[in-house]
Amino acid sequence: MAKLNRKQIQDRAREILEAESGGIRWGEILKLIHGPDPETPPNSIHGAIQVLFQSSDDIVKVARGTYQLAKYVDADAADAVAADEAIATVPIGNATAGATGTLTEQDFYASFAEWLVENDEATVAEPLGGSSLGGKWGTPDVLGVMKPRAQDIFRFEPQIIAAEIKATPSQPVVAFGQAVAYRLFSHKSYIVVPRTTSSDDMSRLKSLCSIHGVGLVTFLLDKDAPDYLVVILPALASPDMFYVNTMLERLKSSEPKLLNKLF
Q1: How many Å apart are CA 127 and CA 199, to the nearest integer?
Q2: Is 4 exposed, middle or buried, given 0-12, 13-18 or 19+ CB atoms closer than 10 A?
Q3: CB atoms within 10 A of CB 172
């Protein structure tokens, strides 16, 4: 067993990341490199990995102390979007008698963004959706910001508002899980579901939203008149600044104009 040099350490780290498609913690990488070659000083391993992670665009810090190859992050995002698209289409005939064609979740993004602004829940709000922010639960359907206006006497820190919209009444659990995940980087999070959601599912949603501080809004499956109605108001929470900055960095990379408009 020989002492590894910097390049060998970094090559070993890349091999580990390649094998761990779901990501791996920093400490585990150190153990996996040091274990087979104990003559290599831990500090040398630490320094070599730090340089590698700071200089490589294809290695992403997906959570505190956890790293993943960018290609796997992109694959996770693509799978999440594909899953959403598979359940995002509802026959209009089920919602509006006599109509034909299809109705999608995207049809409600803009109107809910307008609703947030009209109801003073956000100063500015925009549809987002897709995989702009990456990750399985990283991209809200609507992202808004409440910030002080020029005429406001009391100046306050901007608040981020996120919303998850589900046009399929049978998907409340999926929507709730995503809305809760958005609380990592938002001050307020909403779940928006059709008014045709079953009474049993709606009762569970009301209880879960009350417990976890998620806002609950219902709407009609009518693109022209969705009639958004608040059932549970969201609780104001302090997001995790690590995830706030991660979200903003991803938004800057994918939608720089939108970032400027929101912030």
Answers
A1: 28
A2: buried
A3: 22
Please give the C-alpha separations between residue 30 and each of 10, 17, 54, 202, in angstroms, as whole numbers: 11, 12, 16, 47
* pTM for the structure as a whole: 0.71
DSSP helix/strand/coil, 172:
helix
Spatial distance between the Cα atoms of 71 and 54, rounded to a whole number of angstroms? 17
Reduced 3-state DSSP string for 219-233: ECCCCCCCCCEEEEC
The tens-digit pLDDT sequence of the chain (263 residues) is 578 888 888 899 999 999 988 889 888 998 899 888 888 888 889 899 989 988 888 888 877 788 888 888 766 555 555 555 554 455 544 444 444 457 788 899 999 999 999 999 999 999 987 656 665 556 899 999 999 888 888 888 999 999 999 888 777 888 898 899 999 999 999 999 999 998 889 999 999 999 999 999 999 999 999 999 999 999 999 999 998 998 898 888 888 888 888 98
Full set of structural domains in the chain with CATH: 6-74 (1.10.10), 88-262 (no CATH)
Closest residue by Cα to residue 167 from 134, 186, 190, 191: 191
Please tell me what DSSP assigns to residue 7.
H
Per DSSP, which regions of the chain are E strands?
24-25, 59-63, 66-69, 89-91, 102-104, 124-127, 142-146, 159-165, 188-194, 215-219, 229-232
